[in-house]
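quick one
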Amino acid sequence: MKAIEWLGDRVRILDQTRLPQEELYLELGDYQDMASAVVELKIRGAPAIGIAGAYGIALGVLKIEIKSKKEFLDRLRDISHTIASTRPTARNLFQAIDRMQAVAEAGDDVDQIKKALVDEAIKIHTEETEATMRLSQLGAELIGDNFTILTHCNTGPLATGGYGTALGVIIYAGEQGKRLKVFATETRPLLQGARLTAWELKRANIPVTLITDSMAGYFISQGKVDCVIVGADRIAANGDTANKIGTYTVAVLALENGIPFYVAAPTTTIDPSLASGKEIPIEQRSREEVTHIRGVTIAPDGIEVANPAFDVTPHHYITAIITERGIIREPYGEGMKRVVC
Ligand code: MRU
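structure w/ MRU:
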């Protein structure tokens, strides 16, 4: 299964909105289609969004027919702007866009720049894959035999285009022979846990129990969970972490009940320019995602709705942040400087 794949002049993605009922692959030929696929969550998860953004830019520039570098860079800026407008919280997206921009500015001739941009997008994908494999190996050291782990949202190969972050750690620990059980929260409103995490864990042969988000406190307080591990969409310089809405609630439950709360993310998710989580932009999504479940309305017409896609967990709730360059603990400010080059 490949969540996203470069095919030379188009990109193949597995449409995550159709899972688990249907494994439907889509081929995207231009950057606007890629931008729409990201907004519609056909491809999602911060690292996968970064990869999709880079490939989207590559698709866009391949269609530019201008020969002047200045005009080419103007067109590239428009394409990058469209890509950047898709998912504001995912740090990996902006990291990828900045890398693509730097490569374009460094080149001389437009044809050479186009080739360099395609190469850079492939490199971003390769590096993210390697980073998620490495952080999964490192993080697996924190997982003991017979552990029951609670995870929120979806952080496996689908979300990363690689091995996974939180789910990568769990899958790797399973491959080491550790006997594990996982509680996967359904993750309202869009059910990434029920649809995608449950699907990925079943494929990995790791026993998984699906619970609603509101059941987390019940199982944690009964001593049924050894640790919580989640991914991240953006991590500020002090360790404050934005992740799927509901993550903060689970972090508070973990501290209250004395179990570790781990965050797993590649260093491309860290945003050293933000001093704290208060500065992280939070994506607000449509009201229909809350009033409807898979097209069926569940709320009265015209009801007031709020739909923030992410929340911020303050760093003091986080036991450790697992990256491909090492596991960081308090004081996070110093650890962050060590792993971000
Ligand atoms: O809205 P989504 O489905 O893109 O949200 C995904 C998450 O919140 C993940 O936990 C996060 O991106 C880390 S993915 C490895």
